[in-house]
Amino acid sequence: MLLYPGMTALDLVGPQTLLAGLAPGSLHLVAKDVGPVPSDSGISLLATSRLDAAPRDLDVLFVPGGEGSPAQMLDPEIRAFLRDRAARAAWVASVCTGSLILGAAGLLEGYRATSHWCVRASVLPLLGAQPVDERVVFDRNRVTAAGVSAGLDLGLALAARLRGADYARTAQLVAEYAPRPPFRAGTPEEAGAEITQAARAILERLSEQSRAAALSIRG
Amino acid sequence: MLLYPGMTALDLVGPQTLLAGLAPGSLHLVAKDVGPVPSDSGISLLATSRLDAAPRDLDVLFVPGGEGSPAQMLDPEIRAFLRDRAARAAWVASVCTGSLILGAAGLLEGYRATSHWCVRASVLPLLGAQPVDERVVFDRNRVTAAGVSAGLDLGLALAARLRGADYARTAQLVAEYAPRPPFRAGTPEEAGAEITQAARAILERLSEQSRAAALSIRG
């Protein structure tokens, strides 16, 4: 799992919680430097390996999204790392704008994929991917999830591919994942125009920087 | 927010993601010592304050659950810290077995509350709380959530109390929280007998240690 400054902590912690039981002790939290990495919500997660110390052959290569993702799209060292490990990984996965980082590394060219709703249709095609309005999208060995909380659904779907549906169901019950949000506002359609406008304002910088990064890579 | 060894990272990161926008810069991640605190899934979160450096008057005092929770129930320093801050906090909140730590500190005596399904009915009553089979339970200024992933629902419910429903809906849309788990196995009733037995085996140590801790406090 890749960590970087400005990642969204939940993008990573959601799926990791549901996948953690698969192979205890085989989790590698990699970053440019070992140590605390600040997320975009104020919590720091601890990176335990440098990029070059990550195993060459991974079962799952995972990339979270977050406010810091446009800088990662433009980072040659990050892109080279992802290309190298993705070439041998059994699964290549992302949550939220993590798919734009994969795309920037050339890893979604010709793949169906998703991302956060604020960039899905506007940025994914610039990176050669075909945007799909689904919560979790599998295409060959790529699996991408929609924004932030969609990582929990990706975690279960991937656990099922790796170890079977009953394993995934058990992880779901251990995490008591029977969601019951008090509102229906998780998609622009459900939230309505006014809430969507408020959310777009919060996300404006991220969507604009993502689009600019994608255009600069293409150009 | 209290951090301790063996906490479940998602218990804390879920609600924190949805509450983070309320008052940026006013988050205190407190633990016995400043520095990385290992969670029960292998990710460490960074504690930024010692217990005694936490502000005396808090808007929200929050306690996560996890495999390490029984040791916190029995820790006099943790219990004294929670009693002191809870006496002045506007809200006292927990996810999963975090409610058992609150209960061990005497903070749920006579309150309706919930916890992870594996301990809700068996342990909460030993601590003077009235167990309720709901995902998020409010009673006066106490708010407790069911297991692990229920923290997202608590985060939204608490955001709505603190800042209104439209604020919470906006946070929900930013986090794209329109959950669609690929299975229906988030409660024992939905999961069925076989999956529930497998999950109980994973959780057996936690439920037994929780019960023993509660009995020892009562005795």
Automatic annotation (TrEMBL), chains A, B:
Matching SUPFAM superfamilies: Class I glutamine amidotransferase-like
Domain DJ-1/PfpI, residue spans: 2-159
InterPro entries reported in the protein's UniProt record: Class_I_gatase-like, DJ-1/PfpI, INH-QAR
Annotated signal sequence range: none
GO terms (BP aspect): regulation of DNA-templated transcription
Protein name: DJ-1/PfpI family protein
UniProt organism field: Methylobacterium planeticum
